[in-house]
Amino acid sequence: MNFLECMKLRYTTKKYDSGVKLDTEKIQEIEKILHLSPSSLNSQPWKFTIVSDQKIKEALAPFSFHNKEKVEDCSHLIVFSMLDNIELFEKQMAEYLPEYAVTYYNIHIKPLGIAYTKNWMDQQVHIALGVLLSACATMNIDTTPMGGIEPEKYDEILETSNDYKTLFAVALGKRSGEDRNQPSITPKKRLPIEKVISKK
Ligand SMILES: Cc1cc2nc3c(=O)[nH]c(=O)nc-3n(C[C@H](O)[C@H](O)[C@H](O)COP(=O)(O)O)c2cc1C
């Protein structure tokens, strides 16, 4: 199936078949795909926590608003965190990145302030979200991106180091046949293509 067809068929899953668990091989492939996500300057200000333990999913579920059932019933939950310590981030850059990247950061990002820099780092983590959703679309894995969670509670339960903070999570698994959001029942909705694609 080509990528366009995969994108037509992927959708935000609202109900999972709790009896279906993803193969270890697929999860290992996902780990490698996340690891290869692109980021500005190759800065990689992220951590991905892959939760398969049912007890941990059940502990996180009450802090997931309308996503509670998805967190309980999905096969795996991936929690996306951002490196939230600028000092450590700069150390990581200095250790792993070429000098031109560090120089660009020092001239064009850092002087704009901590809030700007952290927002820029947050954007990089969202790129990995797009990569994951697209990859899963080609791997016959159903997904739910979830901004509707309580990040501080997630940090507490996952015992995240203070240097990182949860931004959002993605549920992965197999849809329930009863999920009314699947495109065969509820067609995908988007703005008119002419409104969002401009040609010059
Ligand atoms: C960053 C982000 C956060 C989202 N948060 C939630 C969420 O908490 N719960 C949910 O059911 N869907 C969530 N969505 C799914 C969007 O509502 C969905 O992608 C959009 O309506 C398009 O529908 P589709 O994914 O089925 O094509 C989120 C999507 C993104 C990209």
Task: Describe the protein's architecture and organization.
There is one protein chain. The chain is of the alpha+beta class and about 200 residues long. The chain has one domain: NADH Oxidase (3-Layer(aba) Sandwich), CATH 3.40.109. Helix content is about 45%, strand content about 15%. The relative contact order is 0.23. Flavin mononucleotide binds near residues 11, 12, 144, 145 and 168. Flavin mononucleotide (FMN) binds near residues 11, 147 and 188. GO terms for molecular function: oxidoreductase activity. Keywords: NADP, Oxidoreductase. This is NAD(P)H-dependent oxidoreductase.
Features:
9 helices, globular, 200 residues, 4-stranded antiparallel β-sheet, 46% helix, binds flavin mononucleotide, alpha+beta
Would you state the CATH class? Alpha Beta
Largest sheet: 4 strands, antiparallel
Instruction: Using the alpha-carbon principal axes, give the shape.
Output: globular
Named CATH topology: NADH Oxidase
What is the helical fraction, as a range of percent?
A: 40-55%
CATH superfamily: NADH Oxidase
Strand content: 5-15%
Which small compounds were modeled alongside the protein?
Answer: flavin mononucleotide
Number of domains: 1
Number of helices: 9
As laid out across the biggest beta sheet, the strand order is 1-2-4-3
